[in-house]
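User: I'm writing a tutorial on reading structure tokens. Could you give me a worked example: one chain, its sequence, then its tokens, then a sentence or two explaining what the tokens reveal?
Assistant: Sure. Here is the example chain.
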Amino acid sequence: MAKENLITRIQSLNLQVKLLIFLGIVLVLSIINYALVNYEEVNLANSTSGIEVAQRNEVIAQKFGFLAFSVFQGNESYKKELEIAINEHQYNLDLLENGGTVEILNKRVPVSPVTGKTRSKLNEIKQLWGTYRENLLAVLTQSTEVTQIDSVLAAGQVTYTVKRVPNQARRQAMAFVQDNTISLFTQNSELGDLLWEDFYTIKNRNSTQIALIFLGYISLFVFVYWQFSVNVVVPIRKIAKAIRSIASGDFSVRLHFKQKDELGILAEDINGLSDSLRKATEFATAIGNHEFDVELKAKNEQDKLVVALTRMRDSLKTIDDESEKRTWANTGIALFNDILRKQYPSFEEFAYAITYNLVQYLNVNQMGFYSLFEERGKKYLKLEACYAYDRRRFEEEIIDLEDGLLAQAVLEKAVINLTEVPENYIRITSGLGDAPPRNLLIVPLMDQKEIYGAIEIASFQKLKDYEIEFVKKIAESTATTIAAIRINQETERLYKEATEYAQRMQAQEEEMRQNVEELASTQEVLQRREKETAEAYQKLAEEYERKMAEMTSKERMLSEQKSQLQASLDISQENYKKLEKQYEEVRAAFEKLKNKEASMAFAIQEKDKEIITLRKTVDELRKGGTTG
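And here are its predicted structure tokens:
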């Protein structure tokens, strides 16, 4: 049970935790391995340094006999070397006993205190070394000879003799040194052997530990490989197979993993993906069948596929709705095009056909059709047709373009769409007490900015935007038709007027022809009169010139006579008066003649003007007759 719980707990861990556990185990093993190896390397280093110290003591022990003997023989140059050897041997023993550092190859290395058998051997060496060192110091410090005082008692008198004799203590110390040098060397050598044994023991133990740790690594990697194969590779292969199945369109695939790690979560996600794709496929199939009410719920806000499919559904639904609206509008436009192309006995019937069919097609309550008229510079709207509460209404209504919604729509050339109709605006009621319509649409009948009237629609329901656009198009088509009707009416009127004018022109042409004939005869008379007048004028001119010459001659002659009479002073006063009177008469006659000449000239000029006017009149009549 505990094992199964452990396996379950391990399977519930995610891959990251599992990897961390594996790396933790590897790290712990590595740390242990490092610590053990480092510890053993330190031990090996210490053991090596201890061996080096022991070997140094061996060398020093070999030198003690020679140095001590040389000093004993009196060679002072070896004292210093012997003293250094003694101190170095003592220092090395202290290192082996207490530990410390020693310089090897110009590097300070640690020396660990010896233990076990090596410690016992070190104690033996120290016991021997204590005595050996004292004897070495005796050889080193004591003199070769000592002063000896001998006393001899003779004849009751003591005689003292002072002499130099060999130092026996030094000799004995030298003898001890010579006898124990080999023993000291041997014990140091044995100490080195023991240290070598410790070195190899540590080295073998270190190799064993490394081998065990290596086996642990191998076991761990085998276990991890097995777990990786079972818990990672096999699930990944199953997942890959499932993904290939999903990619090929098989959304029935299901993955069942006991583990709760990332692969288990991935398997659940793949199951969720398969379900989502299956639902998306069913959703798309339903949309393809125009079932736009089907729903597809998103798992979260990041479910872009569901969002995209939902938007696609909404777009297709919008497109379908727009298609239905276009079909509805196109059908209506075709219907009203047929209505607009028909011939009607009167404009009122034409307006009623538009009104009735628009009410039926929009399913509204009522509608009025208004035409725009202008009389004496004042514009007004006239109700041409009305349909309300399922029957035709014969209402008469004239609306001045001063105020009101209809006038506003016509003057501003704008559509008015109200969802709350003002009180008492709707004049036609059902008669049953029903509430009046509350929605009002006024669309001007406009063709290329030219207003021909307006249509007013009242309904209980609010008209949709596409219905309003449809009404605007119908209003524009109706305005175009009205414009065509009015153009036809104007054309008929102009044709009638042209016919009447042609008839009048034909009569005028006959009358002009007669006038031209009369004018032709009149022109002959005028020409004849003009010739007679010219001849008379010529005669009058000649007579005038003759009279003027005579009068000029008489005036000159009378003037000369007057001068002669006045000069001679012989003429009497009476004769002078007679001559003066004759002169005045001649002068008056001359003036009269001049006035008559002016009158004749004026009369001739007036005749010339009449002739010119008549000629112009005749020419105009000729041109008019030719044009007609």
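What the tokens reveal: The two ends are 131 Å apart (CA to CA). The chain has eleven helices and eleven strands.
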